[in-house]
Design a protein that fits this description.
- The complex is a heterodimer of chains A (about 325) and B (about 260).
- Chain A has helices at about 15-30, 70-85, 95-110, 215-225, 235-240, 270-275, 290-295, 305-320, and strands at about 5-10, 10, 15, 35-40, 55-60, 90-95, 110-115, 120-125, 125-135, 140-145, 150-155, 170, 180-190, 200-205, 230, 260-265, 280-285, 300.
- Chain A has about 325 residues and is of the alpha/beta class.
- Chain A folds into 2 domains: about 5-170, HUPs (Rossmann fold), CATH 3.40.50; about 195-320, TPP-binding domain (Rossmann fold, 3-Layer(aba) Sandwich), CATH 3.40.50.
- The N and C termini of chain A lie far apart (about 55 Å).
- The longest helix of chain B is centred in the first third of the chain and has 17 residues, at about 40-55.
- Chain B starts with a strand and ends in a 5-residue tail after the last helix.
- Classes of the chains: A alpha/beta (about 325), B alpha/beta (about 260).
- At the A-B interface, helix 2, helix 3, strand 7, strand 9 and strand 10 of A face helix 4, helix 5, strand 7, strand 8 and strand 9 of B.
Chain lengths: ~325, ~260
């Protein structure tokens, strides 16, 4: 078997950042340049542009069954491409779709799955994939002894890099003989600009100190100024101040943004487990002794309702 | 309608999980408190509610070492009727896809129309169970369900996707992974805890299932505590001054704005 296959995830007829990150992971495996192919589902007008990410070949599939997201169809499309090229490694971004497809794909291809990797180590001992476990309380190095390997890459970790520009060879494929047992009734898009917090580059997050649902207005204002997603601690979610999909921590989402702004969050071990690997952490809290203040890169002691509006204004001023 | 619920025992969320210096790739277990995977509680609750409405049994299925019996008893105290338990070390230590294959072969011996599991295993941080089970059982799967409505042959499920939601209708049997939005798990009553001690746990082995332990497909070669975050800057005083300093830091050090 040979070759790396990357899922070219698209959204609103554009290549998603997760695709660039997956291409970076492919490159880090250090194989010959012509060894990496992409699989593109619908949005076929984007096929040629994938050459700029260093893909020498782009497998394409299109059809009505892909118009709405049904995991069985997407899984089968990736499986068909992987079998066509005899891929030994299949890489997806660990986005909501990527996570959903990868488990089924690993089973379908009788492969081994390594989810949510944050690093790759290559030395005399071979290749090891690094991923968080126990909600980020530990980092595991994993060696694989089986092919194919299905790898998902944690969002925001692998920067999009310099890729060789190649004229991609386009190879249409089709899936046949599949009975999809999932029917999509309706898809409700997230409000404009609101990302899945798992993929957001900046997150502004509120906890018990926010005091109530109306307190989240201040968090939203700051998030809007920074084009950030909104997060929350378990305490805020359990109090019913904000929906669960915003919860960050061991029983919520695990995030790795470039910047995490924790407002009125004490920073219990379960919360830290969900955001401790953020690149930069700013904490705003009136208790200088709370655990988050000792772990933040920049800790502001004070009343968050006094600080957030000033912070928002200063950021807007700085930007203009 | 009979329902299978997959159960997993994991370290308590408050636990400080540490790498075992004498066994590379393992954690120190002696001092750890273990719990039923928090997301599995939502799966158990949902299964009980559906079974109460439709009539039928809820059957727990668990792969784990002997200590995981405690997690099964927890689910039994909540109300599940019986359980199937597999403790072969080769099964316990295998990767999540292999575990899904083993669980699928157990589920095939049960007469169930729905398989529920937690949205994620919080120890391995894996969401792959429901998708992999879907393949091995050749049925639909839905991940991360926030709402499930079951009628006789189908289920309508709302799941979170890309920050929005997707409503799907799946043919049963299907496997669905459960999120916190689904319900509020019940607390077992004392009498339920007492009764749970007499419920049946059927132990099966890989050889009972006609499965041979394959060679491990991946190995954890090392476990490290992530480097602790360096001591940051703490500012106090006037909000305007603190914010000025913070914005300066964002622009000069973090280079974000």
């Amino acid at each position: 078997m040979a070759g790396i296959l990357v899922w070219a995830e698209t959204h609103n007829n554009a290549i998603r950042k997760s695709t660039y990150e997956a291409a970076t992971v492919g490159k880090l495996l250090g194989r010959p340049d012509d060894d990496m192919a992409a699989v593109l589902i619908n949005d076929l007008d984007l096929a040629q542009s994938l050459g700029t990410l260093g893909f020498s070949k782009v497998y394409t599939l299109e059809g009505e069954i892909f118009n709405q997201y049904a995991s069985e169809a997407y899984c089968e499309a990736l499986a068909v491409a992987a079998e066509e090229m005899h891929a030994d490694t299949i890489i997806l971004g660990a986005t909501s779709r990527g996570r959903d497809i990868s488990g089924r794909l690993a089973a379908r291809l009788d492969g081994v799955l390594i989810s949510d990797i944050t690093d790759i180590k290559t030395d005399a001992d071979g290749i090891r994939f690094v991923r968080p476990m126990y909600s980020g309380k530990l980092l595991a190095e994993i060696r694989i002894d089986h092919q194919p390997a299905i790898i998902t890459a944690r969002p925001n970790v692998f920067a999009s890099g310099e890729y060789d520009v190649i004229e991609a060879d386009i190879a249409p494929l089709a899936i046949t003989d599949i009975s999809i047992k999932t029917q999509v009734n309706q898809a409700l898009q997230a409000a404009k600009g609101v990302l899945d917090i798992g993929e957001a580059d900046i997150i502004v997050s509120g906890g018990r100190g926010v005091g109530g649902p109306e307190g989240f207005k201040a968090i939203e204002d700051l998030a809007q100024a920074l084009n950030a997603a909104i997060g929350a601690s378990r305490a805020a979610v359990d109090s019913g101040w904000i929906p669960y999909k915003h919860q960050i921590g061991q029983t919520g989402k695990v995030v790795t943004p470039t910047l995490y702004i924790a407002c009125g969050i004490s920073g219990a071990i379960q919360h830290f487990a969900g955001m401790g690997s953020s690149r930069f952490i700013i904490a705003i809290n009136n208790d200088p002794e709370s655990p988050i203040m000792k772990k933040a890169d920049f800790a502001i002691v004070g009343d968050l309702f006094k600080i957030i509006p000033v912070l928002k204004e200063e950021i807007l001023k700085h930007r203009s | 309608m009979n329902i299978a619920v997959i159960l997993k025992q994991v370290p308590d969320t408050e636990a400080n999980v540490a790498a075992d210096p004498t066994h590379p790739g393992k954690i120190v277990e002696d001092t750890l408190k273990f719990i039923l995977n928090p997301y599995d509680e939502y799966a158990v609750e949902e299964a009980l509610v559906i079974a109460e409405k439709s009539g039928g049994e809820v059957i727990g299925v668990c792969i784990g070492s002997d200590r995981a019996e405690w997690a099964i008893r927890t689910a039994m105290a909540m109300g599940i009727h019986r359980a199937v338990f597999i403790t072969d070390p080769e099964a316990v230590e295998s990767d999540i896809i292999t575990q899904a294959k083993i669980l699928a072969s157990i589920i095939k011996t049960l007469d169930v129309s729905l398989i529920l599991c937690g949205r994620s295993w919080i120890d391995l941080q894996e969401d792959a169970l429901a998708p992999a089970l879907g393949h091995f059982l050749n049925i639909a799967h839905v991940s991360n369900a926030g709402k499930i409505d079951v009628d006789c042959l189908k289920a309508t499920v709302i799941r979170e996707l890309d920050g929005g939601t997707l409503e799907v209708r799946v043919t049963l049997p299907a496997v669905i992974s459960c999120s916190k939005e689904l319900n509020e798990p019940r607390y077992p009553t004392l009498i339920a805890i007492k009764r749970s001690k007499n419920k049946e746990i059927k132990r099966v082995t890989l050889s009972d299932l006609g499965m041979t332990p394959g060679t491990p497909r991946s190995f954890v070669t090392d476990l490290q505590t992530p480097s602790s975050r360096g001591k940051g800057k703490i500012v106090t005083g006037d909000p305007a001054d603190m914010v000025k300093e913070a914005v300066q830091w964002l622009s000069d050090e973090a280079k974000i704005i």
